[in-house]
């Protein structure tokens, strides 16, 4: 278990799947998650994803985010891909909309970053977000990420084209912070 000030990151349990599906299907969460068609997930989709989890080395590590004081499930985060040769990990995070703007995302990101740099021995963490995800960009910048590039008009959401913002954090920048 990895702990922050407000949250802890733990292994996923089957009991979290229904709440995770409900959160992900909430438009205020879903619109920030995938560039494809934002079609609702079925419980079978979540169960298939859960069955694919493998903590023994395929380069993906998914954590459930729980409130530290109550153990309430509030979202998920993790390492989506790892380029071991170049020491680069790509990450993602989501929180249920009722948990936004309370510091939980920032705390979860700090815990995840610490895990990646201290336990995985990674040199760089990368993420992609959408230009309309102002709250997420503020969190990423707060924990040290810098914008590395912009993929112009790369995503079509809510009737308009938007940019994808590529952000990165180097181990040396994190250590200086």
Task: Give your account of this protein's structure.
Pfam families: Acetyltransf_3. Keywords: Transferase. InterPro entries: Acyl_CoA_acyltransferase, GNAT_dom. With 177 residues, the chain is α+β, with helices and mostly antiparallel strands. It has one domain (2-176): Gcn5-related N-acetyltransferase (GNAT) (Aminopeptidase). 31% of the residues lie in helices and 35% in strands. It contains six helices and eight strands; from the N terminus they run ββαααβββαβαββα. The protein has helices at residues 17-25, 27-30, 43-52, 104-119, 134-142, 171-176; strands at 2-3, 7-10, 61-67, 73-83, 88-95, 124-130, 146-157, 160-170. An eight-stranded mixed sheet has the order 1-2-3-4-5-6-8-7, sandwiched between helices. Strand 5 (88-95), helix 4 (104-119) and strand 6 (124-130) form a beta-alpha-beta unit. The longest helix is centred in the middle third of the chain and has 16 residues, at 104-119. The protein is globular. The two termini are 24 Å apart.
């Amino acid at each position: 278990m990895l702990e922050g000030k407000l949250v802890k990151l733990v292994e996923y349990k089957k009991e979290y799947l229904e709440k995770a599906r409900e959160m992900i299907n909430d438009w205020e969460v879903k619109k920030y998650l995938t560039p494809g068609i934002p079609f609702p997930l079925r419980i079978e989709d979540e169960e298939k994803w859960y069955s694919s989890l493998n903590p023994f080395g395929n380069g993906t590590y998914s954590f459930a985010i729980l409130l530290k004081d109550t153990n309430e499930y509030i979202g998920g985060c993790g390492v989506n891909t790892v380029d071991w040769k170049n020491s680069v990990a790509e990450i993602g995070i989501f929180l249920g909309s009722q948990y936004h703007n309370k510091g939980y995302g920032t705390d979860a990101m700090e815990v995840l970053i610490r895990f990646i740099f201290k336990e995985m021995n990674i040199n760089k963490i990368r993420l992609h977000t959408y230009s309309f995800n102002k709250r997420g960009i503020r969190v990423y910048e707060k924990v040290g990420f810098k914008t590395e590039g912009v993929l112009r008009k790369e995503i079509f959401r809510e009737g308009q084209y938007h940019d994808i913002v590529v952000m990165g954090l180097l181990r040396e920048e994190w250590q200086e912070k």
